[in-house]
What does this fold into?
Amino acid sequence: MNKAEQQKRIKKIMLYATNEAVKTGVIPLMFKYLKMTSEGYAQITVCDKPTIINWVYNGHNEFRVSV
It folds into this structure.
């Protein structure tokens, strides 16, 4: 597997994990209005694997997610 294929797989897993976090209510779509903490973490299951998701509010209604 070359580097481009590996990066594509990683992006897919990150998107899938972020979508799962939204579906389970860990990360709300309306971040600003639900009074979510500006940073935190949660453990969810993604593809039958335990996964940790971290988030940090960056301002301007944006936040960074790490899987």
